[in-house]
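quick one before i forget lol
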Amino acid sequence: MAEKTQAESLPKIPVKAWIALRSKFKQSLPTTVTPSYLMTALSVNDGSARTYLVPLRSVGLIDELDKPTDLANRWRDDTAYTQVAKEILDTVYPKELRDL
């Protein structure tokens, strides 16, 4: 079996979903981010909702128990958003990719 390339292993969250989820988090931070929560928040089916859990963990917005992290709490704050986005980029994406 072929190994995944670095680009294939990077978290992928569509812009539309990112914006919609951030809007929902701004309204009220959920206790747990479940597939049901994502189905409602993003207007997607169960299969699609489940595909968002791994990338949300990878970028640090939810923990291994699918609970929002401190980063997620700061992510929903407009004044902290730029710094949080930079933290996510610096943590998730290698320097070589960020330099491109």
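fyi The radius of gyration is 14 Å.
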